[in-house]
């Protein structure tokens, strides 16, 4: 029994597994009557792992039958391409480049969003300005600004950062501002009762009180930034040899290195999963969930 | 020099603006609160008693008249007038019970961190929540949250504690228990409290002096000294019954006797 279980787990270590902390085993008095498989089946992580294995097997079988690595490489070929590309340093280099640009753009977007929101809570005119700008720019897909961005900032990081900042700024500003406005009058009065005003009032009262909404904005901003950056990188690889993941996909496709393209896609999925499910979920667990603040 | 009263509310008219019109909450209200008073503002809904309390808190400037604390005109909110609200969300949900009290003390510059912690634990213990010092507010019951708010208010050792119907959202049993606890705390430290309520029994149980306000706009009907025993006087009525008549009968104004 236990060998069967560990075999299943070993086989799935390569694929991302999302576990749900709230899973529990249904209570039972007759352990002996129920097989280990059935008990494991009660766990969501086990069922999800099973689904992943099924997908991997189906992929492998289909690709092998197709027998055309230029169109659809097997799961095994993708994994070995990923390994080779990782060892050679090509894939980590691209990932590093993309993450670096992403972090810079993300931070710039957040800083600008904070500055705009500060202006908006400070005066009625600032409030109107933010509302006007967000309603104008939020519906505009950031990638649509890329041609203009290329004209203004040239073929380089500047263009990427401009588009990225734009993709983060509006969703974060909207949620932060909405969060500030939803802070209860009682909490506001409590903060002023302590004699807090200006920056201290914003930092110690408004930001934590609006944090559920701010965090939702940060998640949204992240999702926009991630998708926008990969799309922008696909359009042009930045100055020779130092392109990000988008460029990695594009370049490998041109060289008909299709398993490497699949490996790149798998890397994109993994990074997305790690950031959305690990980082943001951890922040959520330690803040809004712990504080009992739900949106 | 004449020793001024702790709090002087001097011919105060309060107005606030709604979407359509200017509402007069109170008109020409005057009273003084002395140190150690448990001063009750009692009146039906709409008599402007909460608005009056907020004006004392410094959240609202009088349209006419003046409010002075220790002889100084009140211009803005401040930690010398700690508020205890009715709403359970008055605690900062991101801070533990202890940190809620500590933060009040440190952010207002009342005490440095270490002494603030000591004092916070002392007052949390006083309201019987020592075991919950590290819990977050959302894990507490409504009554416990109000106890924390009271502990926070008392820990600041303000000139006056302003309580805005702090027990109104609690069930009857908890409310009674909290009233007794508040009296117990007062026996310990004799803090000054200005307490707003619309409940006659609560006013009679808690107050040393009760200011009766009429509705729309709030005007002073009477100021009553009270010993908390709800006694029968020569008219054959209990104090609570007399207050009820004064507040809810149509034309008793001319017969009001001033007990002062």
What would a concise description of this structure say?
The complex is a heterodimer of chains A (295) and B (260). Helix content of chain A is 76%, strand content 0%.
Structural topology:
The complex is a heterodimer of chains A (295) and B (260).
Chain A: H1 2-11, H2 36-41, H3 44-66, H4 75-88, H5 90-122, H6 124-137, H7 146-153, H8 157-181, H9 185-193, H10 198-209, H11 211-235, H12 245-254, H13 258-291
Helix pairs in contact in A: 4-13, 5-6, 5-8, 5-11, 5-12, 6-8, 7-8, 8-11, 9-10, 11-12, 11-13, 12-13
Chain B: E1 7-17, E2 22-33, E3 38-42, H1 49-57, E4 64-69, E5 72-73, E6 81-84, H2 97-107, H3 113-126, H4 142-155, E7 160-164, H5 172-189, E8 193-197, H6 200-206, E9 209-213, E10 220-225, H7 239-248
Parallel strand pairs in B: 3-8, 3-9, 6-7, 7-8
Antiparallel strand pairs in B: 1-2, 1-4, 4-5, 9-10
Helix pairs in contact in B: 2-3, 2-4, 3-4
Q: Which features characterize this protein?
A:
heterodimer, A: mainly alpha, 76% helix, flat, B: alpha/beta, six-stranded mixed sheet, four-stranded antiparallel sheet, 10 strands
Can you give a write-up of this model?
The complex is a heterodimer of chains A (295) and B (260). Chain A has 295 residues and is mainly α. Chain A is built from 13 helices and no strands. Chain A has helices spanning 2-11, 36-41, 44-66, 75-88, 90-122, 124-137, 146-153, 157-181, 185-193, 198-209, 211-235, 245-254, 258-291. In chain A, helix 5 (90-122) packs across helix 8, helix 8 runs antiparallel to helix 11 and helix 12 (245-254) runs antiparallel to helix 13 (258-291). Chain A is flat. Chain A starts with a helix and ends with a helix. The model of chain A is unreliable at 1-23 (pLDDT under 50). Chain B has 260 residues and is of the alpha/beta class. Chain B contains seven helices and ten strands. In chain B, helix 2 packs parallel to helix 4 (142-155) and helix 3 (113-126) packs across helix 4. The A-B interface holds A 184, 186-187, 189-190, 192-196, 200, 204-205, 208-209, 211, 287, 290-293 and B 54, 57, 59, 76-79, 81-83, 85, 87, 89-90, 92-94, 103-104, 107-109, 136-139.
């Amino acid at each position: 029994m236990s060998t069967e279980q560990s075999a299943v787990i070993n086989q799935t270590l390569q694929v991302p597994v999302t576990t749900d902390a709230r899973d529990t085993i249904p209570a039972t008095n007759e352990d002996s009557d129920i097989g280990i498989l059935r008990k494991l089946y009660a766990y969501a992580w086990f069922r999800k792992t099973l689904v992943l294995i099924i997908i991997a097997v189906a992929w492998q079988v289909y690709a092998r039958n197709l027998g055309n690595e230029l169109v659809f490489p097997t799961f095994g070929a993708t994994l070995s391409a990923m390994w080779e590309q990782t060892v050679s340093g090509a894939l980590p280099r691209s990932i590093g480049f993309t993450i670096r640009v992403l972090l810079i753009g993300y931070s710039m977007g957040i800083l600008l969003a904070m500055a705009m929101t500060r202006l908006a809570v400070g005066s009625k005119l600032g409030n109107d300005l933010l509302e006007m700008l967000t309603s104008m720019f939020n519906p505009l897909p950031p990638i649509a600004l890329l041609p203009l961005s290329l004209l203004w900032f040239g073929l380089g990081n500047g263009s990427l950062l401009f588009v990225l900042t734009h993709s983060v700024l509006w969703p974060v500003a909207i949620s932060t501002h909405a969060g500030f406005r939803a802070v209860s009058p009682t909490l506001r009065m409590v903060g002023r009762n302590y004699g807090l005003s200006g920056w201290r009032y914003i930092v110690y009262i408004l930001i934590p009180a609006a944090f559920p909404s701010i965090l939702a904005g940060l998640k949204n901003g992240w999702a926009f930034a991630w998708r926008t950056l990969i799309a922008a990188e696909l359009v042009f690889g930045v100055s020779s040899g130092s392109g990000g993941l988008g460029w990695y996909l594009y370049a490998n496709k041109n060289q008909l290195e299709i398993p490497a393209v699949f490996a790149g896609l798998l890397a994109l999925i993994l990074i997305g999963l790690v950031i959305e499910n690990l980082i943001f979920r951890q922040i959520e667990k330690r803040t809004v969930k712990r504080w009992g603040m739900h949106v | 020099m004449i020793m001024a009263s702790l709090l002087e509310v001097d011919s105060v008219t309060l107005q606030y603006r709604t979407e359509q019109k200017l509402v007069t909450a109170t008109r020409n209200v005057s009273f003084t609160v002395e140190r150690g008073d448990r001063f009750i503002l009692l009146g039906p809904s709409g008599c402007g008693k909460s608005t009056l309390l907020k004006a004392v808190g410094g959240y609202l400037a009088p349209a006419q008249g003046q409010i002075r604390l220790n002889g100084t005109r009140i211009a803005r909110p401040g930690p010398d007038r700690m508020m205890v609200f009715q709403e359970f969300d008055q605690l900062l949900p991101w801070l533990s019970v202890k940190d809620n009290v500590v933060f009040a003390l440190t952010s207002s510059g009342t005490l440095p961190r270490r002494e603030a912690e000591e004092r916070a634990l002392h007052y949390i213990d006083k309201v019987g929540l020592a075991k919950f010092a590290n819990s977050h507010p959302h894990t507490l019951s409504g009554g416990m949250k109000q106890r924390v708010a009271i502990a926070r208010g008392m820990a600041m050792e303000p000139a006056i504690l302003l309580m805005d119907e702090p027990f109104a959202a609690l069930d009857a049993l908890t409310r009674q228990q909290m009233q007794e606890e508040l009296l117990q705390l007062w026996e310990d430290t004799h803090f000054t409290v200005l307490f707003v309520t619309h409940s006659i029994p609560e006013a009679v149980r808690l107050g040393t002096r009760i200011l009766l306000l009429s509705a729309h706009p709030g005007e002073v009907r009477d100021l009553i000294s009270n010993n908390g025993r709800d006694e029968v006087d020569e008219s054959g009525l209990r104090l609570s019954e007399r207050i009820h008549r004064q507040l809810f009968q149509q034309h008793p104004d001319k017969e009001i006797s001033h007990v002062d």
